[in-house]
Amino acid sequence: MGSDRGDIIPEAHHPEHCHVQGEGPPLIYIPGLDGTGLLFYRQARLLAHRFRVITFRLRDDARSMDTLVAEIARHLDDAVPDGTPAIMVGESFGGALAMSFALAHPERIRALVILNSFSRITPKIKLYAAITAASIVPWGTMRIARRLTASRLHSSHTHRDEINRFLLLTRATTRLGYINRLRILTHYDIRPRLKQIHVPTLFLAADEDHLIPSVEQATYMCARVPSAAMRVLQGHGHGCFLAPDLDLDEILKEWGNR
After folding, report:
1. Tens digit of pLDDT for each residue in 211-247?
2. CA-to-CA distance for 100 and 102, rounded, in angstroms?
3. pTM (2 decimals)?
4. What is the DSSP-derived secondary structure letter of residue 176?
5. What are the structural domains of the chain?
6. CB-side exposure of 91: number of CA atoms within 13 Å?
7. Could you tell me if 139 and 175 are in contact, meaning their C-beta atoms sit under 8 angstroms apart?
8. DSSP run (H or E) holding 127
9. Which end of the chain is less congested by CB atoms within 10 angstroms, N or C?
Protein backbone atom coordinates (compact mmCIF):
# COMPACT_ATOMS: atom_id res chain seq x y z
CA MET A 1 0.00 0.00 0.00
CA GLY A 2 3.02 2.23 -0.01
CA SER A 3 4.61 4.28 2.71
CA ASP A 4 3.52 7.81 1.82
CA ARG A 5 2.70 10.41 4.44
CA GLY A 6 -0.87 9.11 4.73
CA ASP A 7 0.39 5.92 6.35
CA ILE A 8 2.21 7.75 9.17
CA ILE A 9 0.45 8.35 12.48
CA PRO A 10 1.57 11.67 14.02
CA GLU A 11 2.54 11.24 17.66
CA ALA A 12 -0.27 13.55 18.79
CA HIS A 13 -2.79 11.19 17.20
CA HIS A 14 -1.36 7.88 18.37
CA PRO A 15 -4.08 5.22 18.80
CA GLU A 16 -3.26 4.68 22.46
CA HIS A 17 -3.89 8.30 23.40
CA CYS A 18 -7.17 8.97 25.17
CA HIS A 19 -8.36 12.48 26.03
CA VAL A 20 -10.67 13.26 28.96
CA GLN A 21 -12.37 16.63 29.26
CA GLY A 22 -14.69 17.82 32.06
CA GLU A 23 -16.10 16.10 35.11
CA GLY A 24 -19.27 14.21 35.93
CA PRO A 25 -20.86 11.08 34.48
CA PRO A 26 -18.77 9.52 31.70
CA LEU A 27 -19.64 10.06 28.05
CA ILE A 28 -17.47 8.42 25.38
CA TYR A 29 -17.43 9.33 21.70
CA ILE A 30 -16.84 6.60 19.09
CA PRO A 31 -15.54 8.14 15.85
CA GLY A 32 -16.53 7.37 12.30
CA LEU A 33 -14.56 5.94 9.40
CA ASP A 34 -11.87 8.62 9.75
CA GLY A 35 -11.04 7.07 13.11
CA THR A 36 -10.18 10.27 14.95
CA GLY A 37 -12.01 11.48 18.04
CA LEU A 38 -10.71 14.98 17.32
CA LEU A 39 -13.80 15.77 15.23
CA PHE A 40 -15.93 15.78 18.38
CA TYR A 41 -14.27 19.02 19.54
CA ARG A 42 -17.33 21.25 19.27
CA GLN A 43 -19.73 18.89 21.04
CA ALA A 44 -17.11 18.06 23.68
CA ARG A 45 -16.96 21.74 24.67
CA LEU A 46 -20.74 21.86 25.02
CA LEU A 47 -20.90 18.65 27.05
CA ALA A 48 -17.90 19.06 29.34
CA HIS A 49 -19.73 21.27 31.84
CA ARG A 50 -21.67 18.25 33.10
CA PHE A 51 -19.98 15.15 31.62
CA ARG A 52 -16.56 13.55 31.66
CA VAL A 53 -16.10 13.47 27.88
CA ILE A 54 -13.78 10.75 26.60
CA THR A 55 -12.37 10.79 23.08
CA PHE A 56 -9.74 8.61 21.44
CA ARG A 57 -8.40 7.46 18.08
CA LEU A 58 -9.35 4.07 16.69
CA ARG A 59 -6.54 1.60 16.16
CA ASP A 60 -5.54 1.53 12.52
CA ASP A 61 -4.31 -2.07 12.66
CA ALA A 62 -7.63 -3.45 13.96
CA ARG A 63 -9.04 -6.00 11.51
CA SER A 64 -12.23 -6.97 13.35
CA MET A 65 -15.08 -5.37 15.24
CA ASP A 66 -14.18 -7.51 18.26
CA THR A 67 -10.71 -5.93 18.38
CA LEU A 68 -12.19 -2.45 18.39
CA VAL A 69 -14.75 -3.43 21.05
CA ALA A 70 -11.89 -4.65 23.26
CA GLU A 71 -10.06 -1.37 22.66
CA ILE A 72 -13.04 0.66 23.86
CA ALA A 73 -13.25 -1.49 26.98
CA ARG A 74 -9.61 -0.69 27.75
CA HIS A 75 -10.21 3.03 27.31
CA LEU A 76 -13.17 2.86 29.68
CA ASP A 77 -11.06 0.94 32.21
CA ASP A 78 -8.51 3.76 32.14
CA ALA A 79 -10.89 6.73 32.07
CA VAL A 80 -13.62 5.29 34.32
CA PRO A 81 -11.81 3.00 36.78
CA ASP A 82 -14.83 2.71 39.06
CA GLY A 83 -16.85 1.10 36.27
CA THR A 84 -19.61 3.73 36.15
CA PRO A 85 -21.75 3.02 33.04
CA ALA A 86 -21.15 5.57 30.28
CA ILE A 87 -23.26 7.28 27.68
CA MET A 88 -21.80 6.12 24.38
CA VAL A 89 -22.11 8.36 21.31
CA GLY A 90 -21.33 6.65 18.00
CA GLU A 91 -21.17 8.46 14.67
CA SER A 92 -21.59 6.60 11.35
CA PHE A 93 -19.05 3.71 11.49
CA GLY A 94 -18.77 4.56 15.18
CA GLY A 95 -22.48 3.90 15.56
CA ALA A 96 -22.00 0.37 14.23
CA LEU A 97 -19.12 -0.08 16.66
CA ALA A 98 -21.08 1.39 19.57
CA MET A 99 -23.99 -1.01 19.02
CA SER A 100 -21.54 -3.90 18.80
CA PHE A 101 -20.02 -2.80 22.10
CA ALA A 102 -23.44 -2.54 23.74
CA LEU A 103 -24.16 -6.14 22.77
CA ALA A 104 -20.84 -7.33 24.20
CA HIS A 105 -20.80 -5.18 27.37
CA PRO A 106 -24.32 -3.93 28.19
CA GLU A 107 -23.35 -3.43 31.84
CA ARG A 108 -20.91 -0.69 30.83
CA ILE A 109 -23.47 1.39 28.92
CA ARG A 110 -25.92 3.83 30.49
CA ALA A 111 -27.36 4.89 27.13
CA LEU A 112 -26.53 4.84 23.43
CA VAL A 113 -26.71 7.76 21.00
CA ILE A 114 -26.33 6.64 17.39
CA LEU A 115 -25.84 9.34 14.75
CA ASN A 116 -26.23 8.73 11.01
CA SER A 117 -25.42 5.04 11.22
CA PHE A 118 -26.65 1.78 9.74
CA SER A 119 -27.50 -1.86 10.42
CA ARG A 120 -25.43 -2.97 7.39
CA ILE A 121 -24.01 -1.56 4.15
CA THR A 122 -25.55 -2.64 0.83
CA PRO A 123 -24.67 -3.43 -1.83
CA LYS A 124 -21.30 -4.73 -0.64
CA ILE A 125 -19.80 -3.99 -4.02
CA LYS A 126 -19.61 -0.36 -2.90
CA LEU A 127 -17.36 -1.35 -0.02
CA TYR A 128 -15.11 -3.51 -2.18
CA ALA A 129 -14.85 -0.71 -4.75
CA ALA A 130 -13.88 1.75 -2.01
CA ILE A 131 -11.27 -0.68 -0.66
CA THR A 132 -9.77 -1.13 -4.10
CA ALA A 133 -9.65 2.61 -4.75
CA ALA A 134 -8.09 3.36 -1.36
CA SER A 135 -5.47 0.66 -1.99
CA ILE A 136 -4.21 1.90 -5.35
CA VAL A 137 -4.64 5.68 -5.53
CA PRO A 138 -2.02 8.04 -4.04
CA TRP A 139 -3.19 8.77 -0.50
CA GLY A 140 -2.94 12.51 -1.04
CA THR A 141 -5.78 12.15 -3.54
CA MET A 142 -8.07 11.24 -0.64
CA ARG A 143 -7.48 14.65 0.95
CA ILE A 144 -8.28 16.35 -2.36
CA ALA A 145 -11.48 14.31 -2.74
CA ARG A 146 -12.48 15.13 0.84
CA ARG A 147 -12.09 18.82 0.13
CA LEU A 148 -14.09 18.63 -3.11
CA THR A 149 -16.96 16.73 -1.47
CA ALA A 150 -17.01 18.62 1.85
CA SER A 151 -20.13 20.59 0.93
CA ARG A 152 -22.09 17.36 0.47
CA LEU A 153 -20.72 15.72 3.61
CA HIS A 154 -21.60 18.50 6.05
CA SER A 155 -24.76 20.42 6.85
CA SER A 156 -25.28 23.16 4.30
CA HIS A 157 -25.03 25.90 6.94
CA THR A 158 -21.86 24.63 8.63
CA HIS A 159 -19.32 27.45 8.78
CA ARG A 160 -16.42 27.37 6.34
CA ASP A 161 -13.98 27.63 9.28
CA GLU A 162 -15.39 24.40 10.74
CA ILE A 163 -15.06 22.61 7.41
CA ASN A 164 -11.47 23.79 7.08
CA ARG A 165 -10.76 22.48 10.56
CA PHE A 166 -12.38 19.17 9.59
CA LEU A 167 -10.05 18.94 6.59
CA LEU A 168 -7.05 19.67 8.78
CA LEU A 169 -7.94 17.13 11.47
CA THR A 170 -8.76 14.33 9.03
CA ARG A 171 -5.25 14.52 7.59
CA ALA A 172 -4.38 12.13 10.42
CA THR A 173 -6.53 9.44 8.77
CA THR A 174 -4.26 6.70 7.48
CA ARG A 175 -4.67 4.44 4.49
CA LEU A 176 -4.26 1.37 6.72
CA GLY A 177 -6.98 2.42 9.16
CA TYR A 178 -9.39 3.48 6.44
CA ILE A 179 -9.07 0.22 4.54
CA ASN A 180 -9.28 -1.96 7.65
CA ARG A 181 -12.47 -0.26 8.78
CA LEU A 182 -14.01 -0.69 5.33
CA ARG A 183 -13.10 -4.38 5.46
CA ILE A 184 -14.73 -4.70 8.87
CA LEU A 185 -17.96 -3.37 7.36
CA THR A 186 -17.98 -6.10 4.71
CA HIS A 187 -18.71 -8.55 7.56
CA TYR A 188 -21.02 -6.26 9.54
CA ASP A 189 -24.75 -6.99 9.72
CA ILE A 190 -26.35 -6.26 13.08
CA ARG A 191 -29.96 -6.71 11.96
CA PRO A 192 -30.53 -10.11 13.67
CA ARG A 193 -29.24 -8.76 17.00
CA LEU A 194 -30.96 -5.37 17.22
CA LYS A 195 -33.65 -6.80 19.51
CA GLN A 196 -30.89 -7.78 21.96
CA ILE A 197 -29.86 -4.16 22.57
CA HIS A 198 -31.67 -3.37 25.80
CA VAL A 199 -29.97 -0.12 26.88
CA PRO A 200 -31.87 3.13 26.19
CA THR A 201 -30.96 4.15 22.65
CA LEU A 202 -31.50 7.35 20.73
CA PHE A 203 -31.14 7.25 16.95
CA LEU A 204 -30.31 10.61 15.36
CA ALA A 205 -30.70 10.87 11.60
CA ALA A 206 -29.94 13.82 9.31
CA ASP A 207 -32.55 14.31 6.62
CA GLU A 208 -29.98 15.72 4.15
CA ASP A 209 -27.42 12.96 4.57
CA HIS A 210 -25.98 12.32 1.10
CA LEU A 211 -23.63 9.57 2.25
CA ILE A 212 -26.05 6.99 3.69
CA PRO A 213 -29.87 6.80 3.98
CA SER A 214 -29.77 7.81 7.63
CA VAL A 215 -33.48 8.37 8.19
CA GLU A 216 -34.38 5.06 6.56
CA GLN A 217 -31.74 3.20 8.56
CA ALA A 218 -32.65 4.89 11.86
CA THR A 219 -36.34 4.11 11.32
CA TYR A 220 -35.51 0.45 10.71
CA MET A 221 -33.26 0.15 13.76
CA CYS A 222 -35.50 2.14 16.09
CA ALA A 223 -38.41 -0.20 15.33
CA ARG A 224 -36.33 -3.20 16.44
CA VAL A 225 -34.36 -1.96 19.45
CA PRO A 226 -36.67 -2.39 22.48
CA SER A 227 -35.87 0.85 24.37
CA ALA A 228 -35.28 3.15 21.43
CA ALA A 229 -36.31 6.61 20.34
CA MET A 230 -35.58 8.49 17.13
CA ARG A 231 -35.08 12.11 16.16
CA VAL A 232 -34.72 13.48 12.65
CA LEU A 233 -32.23 16.33 12.38
CA GLN A 234 -33.90 18.69 9.92
CA GLY A 235 -31.65 20.45 7.44
CA HIS A 236 -28.51 18.56 8.42
CA GLY A 237 -25.98 16.48 6.51
CA HIS A 238 -23.89 13.47 7.45
CA GLY A 239 -21.20 15.27 9.45
CA CYS A 240 -23.58 17.43 11.44
CA PHE A 241 -21.74 17.48 14.80
CA LEU A 242 -19.81 20.48 13.40
CA ALA A 243 -22.96 22.45 12.55
CA PRO A 244 -23.49 25.65 14.60
CA ASP A 245 -27.07 24.83 15.60
CA LEU A 246 -26.62 21.23 16.75
CA ASP A 247 -26.13 20.94 20.50
CA LEU A 248 -25.91 17.33 21.69
CA ASP A 249 -26.15 18.42 25.32
CA GLU A 250 -29.55 19.97 24.67
CA ILE A 251 -30.66 16.87 22.76
CA LEU A 252 -29.69 14.67 25.70
CA LYS A 253 -31.60 16.90 28.12
CA GLU A 254 -34.70 16.69 25.94
CA TRP A 255 -34.29 12.92 25.75
CA GLY A 256 -35.18 12.10 29.33
CA ASN A 257 -32.68 14.53 30.96
CA ARG A 258 -29.71 12.18 30.45
Report:
1. 999 999 999 999 999 999 999 999 999 999 999 999 9
2. 5
3. 0.91
4. H
5. 5-254 (3.40.50.1820)
6. 26
7. yes
8. helix 124-136
9. N
